[in-house]
Protein 1
Amino acid sequence: MMTIVITGVTSGIGKSLMQMFLEKGERVIGIGRSKERLIKLEQLFKERQFKHYDLVKADFARLSDIDEAVVYIKKRYNYGIDVLINNAAIVPQKKHITEDGYELQFQVNHLAVVKLTHGLLPLIQMVSGVVITTSSNAHRPAKFVSNDLEATRRYGLLRSYARTKLYNILFTRAMNTYVFPKTGVYSYAVHPGLVKTEIGTKDTSRLYAWFWRMFTRRGISPDEAVSTYKYLVYDHARDDACYFYLCEPEKMSKRAASDAYRDALWQATNQLLGLDFEH
Ligand SMILES: NC(=O)c1ccc[n+]([C@@H]2O[C@H](COP(=O)([O-])OP(=O)(O)OC[C@H]3O[C@@H](n4cnc5c(N)ncnc54)[C@H](OP(=O)(O)O)[C@@H]3O)[C@@H](O)[C@H]2O)c1
């Protein structure tokens, strides 16, 4: 039985991922930001008679919530984590600054990924596990602006979102360059495809929510979107590829493949969060 941690399990792809791995007989620790939605999910899991699950509340808009979640998981699952799936993300229409002082998308979609991965790394390292981060082909138009990493100068929901999804790939590549050789922990980023979820309706205008629903009408269901994660966890023989779509290596943008951007983001993020992956 594998032990798998997944973020953003109260809806969309994360919820489908958690159910898929529970159906496969794995032990799954799901992280969600809303107590009410976690209670609802627990009811569903009880009805489905799943046994080996845990639900942890952590709102990534508060970095201290991540510290608390890490302390809890480390204490309870001290025998190791086989897979961490960083899946939670948000695309708010208006710019919000968190109580930690960061733009909300930058914090939830990027900083939280790095912080949680760093916190759980000792457990993942124990079993030479893997880290999978949900990115997106929406990263393609994203620019890398080293003196405006948060993209707050001219906030636009898609501009900021695209940058955070670019960061997900750059982070994945940095993990494989700097962390994998020392720990054996390999990282992947996944484009799940266009998926019919509610992500574009959360903290957006009615018009934007309508547009998102129209846009995703041709998308796949969250249950269909889990195939690449399943493939990476059970069937993939590791090679140098790290960005996947439909169970195949996917082409990333030139900026995502840039070593200079990889290193600049790695250094800036670790400095912002006061992290040291080397020790
Ligand atoms: N849908 C697509 O077409 C598509 C395409 C490419 C990539 N993606 C990526 O797929 C991943 C999952 O998105 P989705 O489409 O499944 O949308 P979703 O259903 O909205 O899932 C996002 C999850 O993140 C959680 N979340 C949001 N803010 C959070 C916070 N502050 N702290 C902790 N968790 C938070 C949400 O919690 P709540 O349930 O409480 O809202 C939700 O469970 C994201 O990384 C997204 O960028 C999606």
Protein 2
Amino acid sequence: MNPYTVVRRSGGRLVTVPYHEVYATYVLPTATLLEEAAALSQNPSLTAYLGLQATALRTDDYFQADLAWLDLVGNVDLSIGPHETYDDQLTGQKAFYKANVLLVDQAAAGRLDKYKAEVPALQANLPVDPQYKLDQTGTMTPLILVDDIRRAGQGRAVMEPVAFSLPNDPRVWEAKGAKKVMMGNYLSARRTTVLEPLARAVLDDSVASQMDGEAYFTWVLMHEISHTLGPRNVTKDGKQSTVREALGEYYTPIEEGKADIGGLYNLPYLMDKGIVTGSLMSHYVGYLAEALRSIRFGMGSAYGVIRLAAWNFLVEKAALSPSGTNGRFLLDLDKAKAAVTELLVKLITIEGQGDQAAAGQFIKAYTTVMPELKTFLDAAETTVPLEFVPMYP
Ligand SMILES: [Zn+2]
């Protein structure tokens, strides 16, 4: 279950070998380069992080480096190491190496702070039993808007992430929280090259025409914030474990679904408080376009799996329905709000109970691409790109 070990056969047994030994030819030179960069940096918080991250790469103990990453201040941020676990399709445990070089938009900090301040209220507002609401003390630090000027490794594997939330270690969350990173240049590239044309191809004009930059940005922000809501630990048969361990292969789709649907659930609440502006329809469209994009990646993607399941759930509740004139999908906001509440309760309860069987049943029951949707996705294959790919000089 360690994210930083490789499992190998040795005779008749399974043994674990730490990443820093298995991947020493890559990891050791990287650590040296990070130390050289640390020596050049004039930013003390960056120097500290680079030095600790170099040590962490050599030992696979990331705790101190993770804390230092959360403490970074200044206009340059760097995220490098074995981080995301989406690509482990067996248990969702093993981390994949990636790197992002980020320029921080410091002017945006004030705009983002008002969202951060709402997290405890959002936790309290969840439509679930209080036992599934986590104490938020010390969490949600920090939230930044950046341009990602260079990415590598898992950061470029098939999908180009537009935002991320790290670290993944619950001990770090408890000590300090997790940093949410919104990558503005990727958000805008994905929206214009993929999402807007895809929304027009599948959704009725009354819905698709609501897609804009602010709507998509808010939607992604809501997703990232909602990752911090809900349970993290499970007690089952008197034994404590993390939700991640309890749900195994289903953890990533269920957790991403909770972030998606939690984000939609929070929108009306934040609009009532005047923190989110614009129309609810536009923010929903941000999600629906992202869902359609992910569904095109198929069942090999945790996002594809859960977003197809949520799409079918919304269709089942008549929140989404083909229009009588052209078959493109209409959105009924009242029905959508009710369906979102019901689905959020379902997902958080699965997490809180660590109910792997219920997770599997839900995913199995809702992941068929219905002909009403397939027709439009097939037609979009020749007209809308699957993804954009950054090129570096
Ligand atoms: Zn997510």
